[in-house]
Amino acid sequence: MTKQTEWLRSPDAAEFLLNLYKSFAASNPLITIMADRLRQVAGVAMIHLIDHWVLPATDETAAKLIQYGFEVSLTIDGDEVWARAGARLPRVRLSAEINLIRIAVCVESIDEFAGAWGLPPVGRRGDTESGYEEARYPLAEGELAVIVRLGYNGFRPGELKASSLRSLRNVRRRLRSRPRYSDAAENIREAKLLLTDVVGEIGEERTVDELFAAEREYYVARNAAARHQFLLQQELGIGWANQDHHTFRSSREGFRDLVDLWTLLGFEARERYYAGEEAGWGAQILEHSVSRVVLFCDVDIAPEELDIDFSIVDLPPRQSLGTIGIWCALHGDSIGLAGMHHLECEYDFEAACSSLKAAGFDVMPPFTDLPMLKQAFTVGEVWPVSRERIEALRTDGFISSEQAARFAEHGAVGSHLEILQRWEGFKGFNKTGVSAIIRATDARS
What we know:
The chain has helices at about 10-25, 30-40, 60-65, 110-115, 160-175, 185-200, 205-220, 225-235, 250-265, 325-330, 350-360, 385-395, 400-410, 430-440; strands at about 50-55, 70-75, 80-85, 90-95, 100-105, 125, 130-140, 140-150, 245-250, 265-275, 280-290, 295-300, 340-345, 370, 375, 380-385, 410-420. By secondary structure, it is α+β, with helices and mostly antiparallel strands.
């Protein structure tokens, strides 16, 4: 059942953490150097990479956290951690064992990050490719921790046996080479069989992280702007650590099964979106409680379907195709041949847009420009469309002969990279803005 959530802004909590970061960076030149290079090279704001803070435990600090809305809870390992509920902000830990602050940034590979920044191979805790790996580096006034999380949201160093590592690498091979079909039902049926098997082998939480790493790889191979951006971020050793959400498009007939597939992996339904009668489009947002993965799942819907619970109701066929339906008819569903419609990551918005434009990748006008959220697509990657798909759409009256000729000669827009910046810990999206960009990117327009 969907949790209808209206996400609030958390300006005080966000300002508290921002001031903590500014003070820490001012006292530690390496952090300033890293932040400047991340922004200049790839448009990435270092503050978006912060996983958590570790602060000296004092009554005053605990009182401040309470004042700014943070609440203490226990991890799966029984460790205390403070978090601001409903906000997209780093967590905070308090430790009586330290006198100086530790900043922990999350990346996809400690080896690649250390190599990119010339950091020594010391201070490592946790086995490589385990659930939690950390490397600590002393600074002038504190400590830098570089961490990798894989299917785990606690803070204990992970252990990984050689047999488990072999199993993981076999799983990665299977996920990256999974078959993709034209038929939506067949894609989901085969994916469910594969993922059920993988969950049994490596667990639900780890499966989520491994699956979407594979999905990002497939997507990057089909989008030049994302490929360029990923290479920049790899040069800096962070990979896609700044990911915000993954967008999957689905035909109506496959949508309930797609939501069921994500539920199988432990995703929980968040808010539903309805773009309005003129747009004919809606979405279900899902989030995983352990992984950082958020899913934005798009589908054509009618006005009378506004209150449908996608997890229990099948969507019947319609006599027309909206923006999502025509995209799936041209390219296939995202779970199959098409792959993701877009990956959205957090950036310093202006810096990222300038960097992409300088490299020859245009960015569309922002479809959200609010005090707490700004979003824009890169100009779409055009994919060829098979003549069989084009002819079927023309024969069924979903496209005109003129549109069919255009798709056959020039192809149709397939995917984008989305540039996003959040402020004040805001976790939600802009329904009006998303509706506008959906209409603007309809393949027939």
